[in-house]
Write a structure and sequence with these properties.
Largest sheet: 7 strands, parallel
Radius of gyration: 19 Å
Number of strands: 22
Strand content: 15-25%
Order of helices and strands: EHEEEHEHEEEEEEEEEEEEEEEEEH
Strand order of the largest sheet: 6-8-11-14-17-20-22
Distance between the termini: 59 Å
Structural class: alpha/beta
Shape: globular
Helix content: 10-25%
């Protein structure tokens, strides 16, 4: 495997460094960001170079890249940098935790994916490019997740679900079986989605209600 350059200089990049260093054979050698966002010459003990000229120091023939960004703008920034890195000729590495349960063909998982511990990916699942699965999700059989998506923790995707491009699925959301979620959809934390969702839709559940504590109620409990 070629050495790896990580795009980013914030917490997502720090986490990517940790996972690649501790759970893969990848040798991370540097970070890169747009020159206007370079705050120091080094990050986590490794050099930081301008993304505009990264190929001069770390040519794509000799190095791979991983874009470590979050879900800002429904993953639009991560998508932009992913496409720019590919245009420069870089192969985009994926990280798949050794503590994840992967029951489908790894060839059905795209590049620049970030799949953390305790994910369960059942047989016949397809995961596109540039997809983040934070820890503890269940992806049901025959489901498909398109490109540039971000699933936070403890999301349940039932069987035969289709999730479109640039979706963000919040913590503890549940998607019932045999539904289609369109492109650019935001599913809020704790939501129960039981029907198809159109493009550019936001799905939320009722927020928690708060009231002043009554001491007599506390004593009863």
């Amino acid at each position: 495997m070629k050495p790896l350059v990580i795009f980013g200089n914030a917490q997502a990049a720090e986490l990517a460094l940790f996972y690649f260093q501790t759970d893969t054979d990848r040798n991370v050698v540097a970070f890169t960001v747009d020159k206007n966002y370079i705050e120091a010459s080094h990050f986590q003990g490794l050099p930081v170079v301008s993304f505009e000229s990264v190929e001069q120091s770390y040519p794509p023939e000799q190095y791979d890249m991983f874009v470590a960004l979050g879900y800002s703008g429904l993953n639009s920034l991560r998508e932009q940098k992913y496409l720019e890195a590919k245009a420069k000729g870089y192969q985009l590495a994926s990280y798949i935790s050794s503590r994840a349960t992967i029951l489908n063909d790894p060839k059905n998982i795209g590049d620049n994916c970030f799949i953390l511990e305790d994910n369960t990916i059942q047989p016949f699942v397809t995961i596109g490019n540039n997809v983040t699965l934070w820890s503890g999700n269940h992806i049901g059989h025959h489901s498909r997740i398109a490109d540039h998506c971000f699933l936070t923790s403890h999301v349940v995707v039932s069987g035969n679900v289709v999730i479109g491009n640039n979706c963000m699925i919040g913590v503890n959301a549940t998607l019932r079986d045999c539904i289609t979620v369109g492109d650019h959809v935001l599913v809020g934390a704790g939501s129960w989605v039981n029907r198809d969702v159109a493009d550019q839709t936001t799905c939320t559940c009722a927020p928690a209600k708060f009231r002043e504590r009554e001491e007599r109620v506390v004593e009863k409990i």
